[in-house]
Amino acid sequence: MVYTYANVLDDIAKLYDNYDFMQFFKFGQSVMGRPLYGIKIGTGPKKVLYVGAHHSLEWLTSAMLMEFVAIYGDAIKNNKQLCSVNAKELFEKTTMYIIPMLNPDGVDLVAGKIPKDNPYMMRLMEMFGDIDFANVWQANINGVDLNHNYDASFAPILPSPAPSRYSGPYPESEPESRALVALTRALNPDLVIAFHSQGREIYYDFEGQIPPNGKELADEFARISGYTPAQPIGSAAFGGYKDWFIKEFNKPGFTIEIGLGKNPIGFDQLETVVKENTCVMIYAAANA
Prior knowledge:
- The protein is an alpha/beta fold.
- Helices cover 39% and strands 17% of the residues.
- The protein contains ten helices and ten strands.
- The strands form two sheets. It has an eight-stranded mixed beta sheet with strand order 1-2-6-3-7-10-8-9, sandwiched between helices.
- Strand 4 and strand 5 form a beta hairpin.
- Helix 2 crosses helix 10 and helix 8 packs antiparallel against helix 10.
């Protein structure tokens, strides 16, 4: 079972019905023309941006973010405390922007939701044959790894489209990464978190560049979640969204790897990762 693009749309519809203080927006489209959706919660001058599912197999990040939105929405609606923070006061202090699924085509590919006669699917089959998409595919439908497609020491890890780690022909070659960059520039957020899986780690620097308060926030996120602050090595150390954000804005940017095991990690870990990361997201919004 996979948390698909259709699940995102269904859950957005439920949120729309239940929480009139949330705003829903489109900020771009995928390679296949699917709208990329975001959720805006809050009226405050501070801004934070949370992103899920850069990678196809990491769809649990999308499910976790949508669960978080519902939890936070309920706390606002009913004037509750959440993680020792008054939700209504946070709503007025900080505006959250949540992008639940940046790579809907890739997620639906691993879910088996793209028909074999679809032109994009036929192209992939020509290139890769009868590949096990459900267990190996991390890229978008073009075979580009979106989290290597940003202008942050961009480098061609592989020479051509692949299930993962092909950076693309040039930075922001893909409509998904290009749309997120444009949104980020328009918002100029104070802090961003890109959620990935797996490993229970928190990455907070880019090539030794640590923005003001970046390490302190990473340490606090670690205390809250039980995750480990770390500095990525190898191909994980460049070309990513948080790398680009740190380079361009010199503000706190994080990659948080949720859960444990081999991707795709399943729904059996959803409750745990929601519990581990809800207060991280609240703390980040309160202290950005």
